[in-house]
Amino acid sequence: MEDSKKVIKYKDHTIEVMPQEARCSLFAVTIFNKEGREVKHSSRAGKNETIAFENAKKMIDFDIEYEKQETEE
Q1: Residue 48 DSSP class
Q2: Residue 46 CB neighbour total at 10 angstroms
Q3: Which residues have CB under 8 Å from 72's CB, separation 6+?
Q4: Run of H or E residues at 49
Q5: Does 2 score more than 60 pLDDT?
Q6: Contact 56, 45 (CB under 8 A)
Q7: pLDDT by residue (tens digit) across 35-51?
Q8: Which helix (H) or strand (E) holds 14?
Q9: What span, in angstroms and rounded, lies between the C-alpha atoms of 60 and 39?
Q10: Residue 70's pLDDT is what?
Q11: DSSP-assigned beta bridge partners for residue 7
């Protein structure tokens, strides 16, 4: 397995996916906000890079939606 991380930008966040075996997962993700501060890390993000990126995007989307609901109350 390659020891390098892959990085993409998504909705003002940066997602880093790196190989890391943990139970049934082969990849971990770290999510950074637009200021570059780490906001989430999951050591079990998925069985491949694509799934790991998709799971990270879901986490970001969930947080954005949650923040919207909090500000509406």
Answers
A1: S
A2: 20
A3: none
A4: helix 49-72
A5: no
A6: yes
A7: 999 999 999 999 999 99
A8: strand 13-22
A9: 10
A10: 83
A11: 16
